[in-house]
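Thread amino acids onto this structure.
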């Protein structure tokens, strides 16, 4: 089945939607756990599904280095290799243009990387990136883009967007759709309103299956990040899904949902879990802190994750504190499952609120999680 999108309900600018892909349905707004190499660290595919995930994000750059696209193709594609039967979106490597700036060279034709593993060359072009993702058999492929750094002046941002727009047109022209999935374009433009507005208009004319807002969460102030969403999202086609790349604080997700964004991804819940930082409905727990040494309570009462669920196997804060302080691998796994369940439950609550028309009402999650002071306790996204 090809990629299709429908809006089921609205609440102001927020949309409750359904994205149908060759490997299943994604109810939106949705959060995509990040499985860079095909798996979220420490989490089996079945556990990811049990947590409530319907779609996973993987990274083309990392998969191309290991195990290699040819190997994945011989093994039946990315779904067969990973054991994840649901939809998969692959990032094209545009973020690595930003994050691996000392290991890449950008030109009009594309990007040449030096592998962060062994220094070997890896060439990405707009056409090549599309072909590699179709060979992987993914449900949503992203175009190659240039994610500019922060800060950058307007002239530099405009030049970067000119190149990204050229690449987007080349990518769309080479897209065959043979895998049955869809191709998303990416709006760039840093924190310059006129450039973002122009970029959204120009990208919308190309005819992508969906559109992403990129180049945020790269070091810019929170106010600029929110402004970019407010400027850009309403200008993207209303009949296509909208994806905000790399944004993961719950309050930022809520803000973007209220402005019409449908899809999100971020490493934040899993990365924070590995450092002993857990999201709960009353705020944030730093489980390493001594105050939890003899705390018999569950991590988050009412949570249904394997650590919190009522029953003989329920994990106390005291036990997780002990495991985390001891460096026990089990601690990272349990904390990751908990944080993912928190995020996926949060998205379910947003979908329900849109359907009921109550998104503007206080959410049951707002007591501590959305408090700015508590958010600063969380590791950077």
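Threaded sequence (381 positions):
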């Amino acid at each position: 089945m090809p990629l299709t999108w429908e809006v089921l309900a609205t609440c102001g600018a927020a949309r409750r939607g359904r994205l149908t892909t060759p490997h299943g349905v994604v109810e939106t707004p949705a959060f995509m756990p990040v499985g860079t190499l095909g798996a979220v660290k420490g989490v089996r595919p079945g556990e990811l599904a049990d947590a409530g995930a319907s779609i996973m994000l993987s990274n083309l750059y990392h998969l191309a280095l290991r195990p290699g696209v040819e190997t994945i193709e011989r093994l039946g594609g990315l779904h067969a290799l990973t054991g994840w039967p649901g939809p998969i979106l692959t990032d094209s490597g545009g973020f690595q243009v930003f994050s691996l700036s000392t290991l890449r060279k950008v030109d009009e034709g594309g990007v040449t990387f030096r592998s962060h593993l062994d220094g070997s060359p890896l060439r990405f072009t707009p056409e090549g990136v599309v072909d590699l993702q179709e060979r992987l058999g993914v449900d949503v492929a992203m175009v190659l883009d240039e994610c500019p750094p922060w800060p950058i002046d307007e002239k530099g941002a405009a030049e970067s967007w000119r190149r990204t727009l050229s690449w987007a047109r080349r990518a769309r022209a080479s897209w065959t759709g043979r895998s049955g999935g869809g191709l998303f374009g990416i709006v760039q433009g840093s924190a310059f309103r006129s450039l973002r507005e122009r970029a959204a208009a120009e990208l919308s004319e190309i005819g992508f299956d969906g559109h992403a807002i990129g180049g945020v969460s790269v070091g810019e102030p929170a106010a600029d990040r929110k402004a970019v969403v407010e400027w850009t999202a309403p200008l993207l086609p209303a009949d296509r899904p909208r994806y905000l790349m790399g944004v993961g604080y719950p309050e930022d997700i809520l803000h973007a949902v209220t402005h019409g964004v449908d899809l999100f991804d971020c490493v934040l819940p899993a990365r924070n879990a590995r450092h002993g930082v857990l999201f709960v409905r009353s705020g944030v727990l730093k489980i390493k802190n001594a105050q939890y040494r003899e705390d018999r309570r569950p991590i988050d009462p009412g949570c249904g994750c394997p650590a919190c669920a009522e029953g003989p196997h329920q994990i106390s804060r005291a036990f997780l504190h002990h495991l985390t302080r001891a460096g026990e691998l089990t601690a990272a796994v349990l904390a990751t499952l908990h944080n993912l369940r928190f995020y996926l439950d949060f998205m379910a609550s947003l979908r329900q609120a849109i359907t009921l028309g109550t998104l503007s009402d206080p959410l049951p999650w707002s007591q501590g999680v959305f408090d700015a002071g508590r958010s600063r306790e969380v590791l950077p996204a």
